[in-house]
Amino acid sequence: MWEWRGRRGSRRKITTLYTFGRALLLCCLLGLACHALGAAIIEDHSSTWNSAGLNETLARGYDEIFPQELFERVVHEALVFEKYEKDERARAAGGGYMHGKGGTFWRPLFNEHGDFLKPRFAIEAAIIMLYKNDIGASRHDRVAGGEWWVQKRSLKEDIGFHHDKDEAMASLKSTMKFPEVSTVTYLRGEGAPTVIFNQTTPDGNAQVPISPREGFLSYPRENRHLTFRGNLQHGVPAELAPENSESMVQLRGKSGERITFLVNWWATKPLGPNCNTVRRRKGGRKRE
After folding, report:
1. pTM for this entry
2. At residue 132, what are phi and psi to the nearest 5 degrees?
3. Cα gap 264→107, rounded to integer Å
């Protein structure tokens, strides 16, 4: 089934999302990664989902989310931060955080008066723009800021099925805590789709429902933005990439990489050491 959904009278064209029947979705379950964790924190996300237009649908998509000039600046900065985070992880004890996890960045949205903080660089301006698109123009009681990071993968590389969570809490306390809303913004138009199932976990082990009954596919397209409920299982199966993806990349003279900018909306900042605040210092940037 093809879905076209409007929101708040907006004229923005909503991304086409593919809703599959149960039989097709079960094919994608092969190779699902299950993480044996101790427990999950169950929270009421309904007010945030309502603001994001997600109470009656698992996901939404938006094309041309950023003005072109801002988009180009975000792409440039994203590649800088992706390399910076990778270098920092390589210098960390043991080559990274627990269980081979990477690091993310935290951007608080508001000052003590409830006004948006002034952005210091393009990515922070983009985060404010995404918040206004995803949640609304004013402060929401359940969203204090955005956890963000950049993923750069080869076109043939899978991203295993997983739940977004507070990674440090999961590693250190064997407890899963989910963001309010998860988002993906595609910085390149190549690669496999993001696949989202209507499955969450009550304890970090089992999936509810056991087999998905509903799901969405969102294929990469430059400047496309995807939002979905933050407690849902999702992944990127490389086998679903378009067959001509690599040849098209070569024709355009680009490297064969799938690059995404991810921002998850949280009520509170995820724990360190995985999630860090970007602070300016003379001669560069500092994580704390």
Report:
1. 0.83
2. -65, -35
3. 10
